[in-house]
Amino acid sequence: MNLTELVEVLQARRKLAAIVLGAVAALVIVTSLVLPKTYVAEVDLVVDSKGRDPLTGMILPSQLLPSSLGTQVDVIASRNVALRVVDKYKLTQIAEVQAQFRSATGGNGSIREWTAEALLDKLDVRPSRESNVVNIRFSAADPNFAAELANAFAEAYIQTSLELNMDPARRQSAWFDQQLQQMRQALEASQDRLSEYQRLHNVVGNDDRLDVESGGLAEMSSQLVAAQAAMYDAQTRQKQMNNALARGNLEQLPDILGNGLLQSMKADLTRAESKLAEAAERLGKNHPQYRSSLAEVRTLRKRLAAELVTAKGSINQAAQIAQQRTVESRAALEQQKTRILELRGQHDGVNVLAQEVHNSQFAYDAALQRASQLRLESQLDQSAVAVLNPAIVPSEAASPKLLLNAFIALLLGAALGVGAALVAEALDRRARSAIVITQITGLTVLAEIPGAVVRPKLWHRMQRLRASDILSLQST
Fold it and tell me: Which of 48, 200, 258, 417 has the highest count of CB atoms within 10 angstroms of its CB?
């Protein structure tokens, strides 16, 4: 069917199309007039990115991602927010709401939950695509009620957002309080252990006894070295003396040669022996002078021998004393080393306990600082959400819109009218042009009489010919 045929069909069946158009338009307009009016109130909220922490002043990363705004939309349209609105306005105590609840559920279930779900059905939340503004729309038959409920949802959402931010801080603060008590007990226990250890080992504060004992150890080491050197020297002298005794030349020892008393006695002995020899040459052995000189020589020899024995004993005694002093110095040095090791062990124990106290104190201070911050956060009554444009009472109903519905009804009626005309034409096909006759009979039209020459009644009668009539004429 071409455009010309379509126009001819619509012109022929214009009454049917007009009836359908009028019926649809009348139905839509009557329905729009009969339906109750619905008013929509809007609230605009600004969700801040919270770029700076209000407690620490630290710069925080932006949170205005699509998922973040989507989360805020879900929170606004949550059952928790709706229940807050129901409880604030005590909607469950309204007789009309109770009647609607009984009619819808038969009195089964919770009227509070049912009312919240009914409010959510009338709520529409839309985030902005290019900004951090969230739009809340609430529809109701009463414009005042719509505006009041839209503002109520915004307020309930802000309160819920605050609680969502503060509740984790409160729980963490309570947990930190418990941990602080345990950390305080651990800190006190470590301090008690340190004090008890210092008391038992007589270690007080910054004890410098280790430095003193270390200085004493160095001095004792020097004394031991000196004692060993003296012992080696005395042992060398003793060995020389033994060798001299074995050879019989004790008088040639350095200690003997360096002894002034022995040398004086040897000189006296030499003079006495010379005097004795002179007396022996001049006098007889029984002469008193000779005997006196002999007695003097004998006396000097005894004294010299006794002095040599004394010198020998002095050398042996010096060697023994040097060896004993070396042994005592070595024992004192070992004792001092043991003492220093004990002191170092005590100081190491003190350092370990002091480090334990330091670690406990550090952990306690860090936990205390964090607990104080969480305590402030749990009391911080600041929300990242603010009302940009509060809802006002709408002056015009959002639906039904009579002009829009009438326009839609005209378009829909025209479409349905055209459709009805085409359906009627398909069910009752008429020969309205030569092309149709050719399509039906398959014959070529040789001539066509214009409608202006034929009488109108005859022309309309010819247009009312059905396809069956044409086929019957063709057969005859």
Answer: 417
140 beta partners: 39
Spatial distance between the Cα atoms of 155 and 163, rounded to a whole number of angstroms: 12
Same-domain pairing of 393 and 449: no
| DSSP letter string, 157-207 | HHHHHHHHHHHHHHHHHHHHHHHHHHHHHHHHHHHHHHHHHHHHHT--SS-
Per residue in 333-380, pLDDT tens?
A: 888 888 878 877 777 788 888 888 889 888 888 888 887 876 776 666
pLDDT at 435 over 70: no
Q: CA 7, 11, 17, 22 torsion: positive or negative?
A: positive
pLDDT over 50 at 263, yes or no: yes
Residue 52 pLDDT: 46
Chain centroid, CA 385 distance in Å:
25
Going by C-beta distance under 8 Å and a sequence separation of 6 or more, which residues neighbour residue 197? 203, 349, 350, 353
Taking only the tens place, the pLDDT of each residue in 94-128 is: 888 888 888 888 888 889 999 999 999 999 998 88
Mean pLDDT of 378-392: 75
Please give the Cα distance from 416 to 424 (Å, whole number): 12
277-293 per-position pLDDT tens digit:
777 777 777 777 777 87
Q: Are 165 and 61 part of one and the same domain?
A: yes
Q: Cα torsion for 401, 404, 405, 406, to the nearest 10°?
A: 120
CA distance 353 to 195: 9
* Cα distance between residue 364 and residue 241, in whole Å: 77
Same domain, 108 and 154: yes
> Domain containing 447: what range?
429-476
Which helix (DSSP H) or strand (DSSP E) does residue 220 occupy? helix 209-247
- Exposed, middle or buried: residue 248 (CB in 10 Å: 0-12, 13-18, 19+)? exposed
Pair 69, 94 in one domain: yes
Residue pair 143/41 in contact by the 8 Å Cβ criterion: yes
Place of tokens 């069917």: 1
Is position 190 within any domain? no
